[in-house]
Write a structure and sequence with these properties.
The strands form three sheets. Strands 1-11-8-7-5-6 form a six-stranded parallel sheet, sandwiched between helices. Strands 3-2-4 form a three-stranded parallel sheet, with helices on both faces. The termini are far apart. The longest helix has 21 residues. Helix content is about 40%, strand content about 15%. A hairpin with a 5-residue loop joins strand 9 and strand 10. Helix 1 packs parallel to helix 10, helix 2 crosses helix 10 and helix 6 crosses helix 7. By secondary structure, it is α/β, with parallel strands linked by helices. It is globular and about 55 Å long. Bound molecules: guanine. The site of guanine has 8 residues, from strand 4.
């Protein structure tokens, strides 16, 4: 028997906590504002940005959207970010990725003020995560840690396997699991004999952008399986990086897609935006 880790339920609890804290700020005359930048018309990015704006509305934040054309220059985008860095009425800045190919993602990210970097993407904030002294939580990994904690899944001493080494998920995920005293392995596309690692793991986080990549034969009985992937199949349905139907019969806990990790990323973003306000107002 497996337990479904309900990301909608846990994210609701997080957002309700943020909403309560935001209300006390608003009642005292404050206003919490997130600026959201979207470049081009990638349909997935549009859905994510709309969900982020909806979450802002729910918790009582203002959101300001900047929808820029695909053809915007890097200089124009950075100049917008620099203006938002200066504006006292903007607390958080989120630039939705991916960006068009003619724009250097690193240059854009490093133009965001670390004090408003609610994605925790800048070198300053990544460094703080590395040393375990951070203001802004990395959104997806922190959301996963929140789910593990909500379901009382202990990380201490457990063999944790992170499959995928992206800057957004894999690397910070490994850090957070390590800060929680897990024994962490990171696997990636050059890893040999992946199955040897997956069969030993107590907790597996899969972020490989490959539909149904992790199958039941790759895990041992009772593994905790966290699925970061999201893919639209030809039949229009969504699936993750985990072959949910077979893996669920063998694991102890599993996140569904949709309704697992996705909503948690947004809940952490709300926590970070509140934190940004508090840092800027020393409150
Ligand atoms: N694109 C995919 N995930 C994310 C995220 O967490 N933040 C931003 N800014 N862009 C993304």
């Amino acid at each position: 028997m497996y337990t479904l880790i309900d990301g909608k339920l846990v994210s609701q609890a997080v957002k309700d906590r943020v909403k309560l804290e935001a209300a006390s700020i608003t009642e005292a005359g404050g206003k919490i504002t997130l600026a959201v930048i979207i470049v081009g018309d990638d349909p997935a990015s549009r859905v994510y940005v709309n969900n982020k704006k909806k979450a802002c509305e729910y918790v009582g934040f203002e959101s300001i959207e900047y929808a820029l054309p695909e053809t915007v220059s890097q200089a124009e985008l950075i100049s917008l970010i620099e203006e938002l860095n200066r504006r006292e009425d903007v607390n958080g800045i989120l630039c939705q990725l991916p960006l068009p190919k003619h724009i250097d993602k690193s240059a854009v990210i490093s133009s965001i003020s670390p004090l408003k970097d609610v994605d925790a993407f800048t070198a300053h904030n990544v460094g703080k995560i590395m040393i375990g002294d951070y203001d802004f939580l990395p959104c997806t990994p922190a959301g996963i840690m929140e789910m593990l904690s909500y379901y009382h899944i202990e990380v201490k001493g457990k063999r944790c396997l992170v499959i995928g080494r992206s800057d957004i998920v894999g690397k910070p995920m490994a850090m957070l699991l390590m800060h929680s005293n897990g024994t962490v392995t990171i696997a990636h596309s050059f890893t040999e004999n992946l199955k040897e690692l997956t069969l030993q793991a107590d907790i597996i986080v899969v972020a490989v952008k490959k539909p149904r990549f992790l199958s039941a034969d790759m895990i041992k009985e009772g593994t905790v399986v966290i699925d970061v992937g999201i893919h639209r199949m030809e039949n229009g349905k969504l699936c993750g990086d985990v072959d949910f139907d077979s893996v669920k019969e063998k694991c102890s806990y599993i996140t569904p897609v949709p309704g697992g990790v996705g909503p948690m990323t947004i809940a952490t973003l709300m926590q970070n935006t509140l934190k940004a306000y508090r840092i800027q107002h020393k409150s």
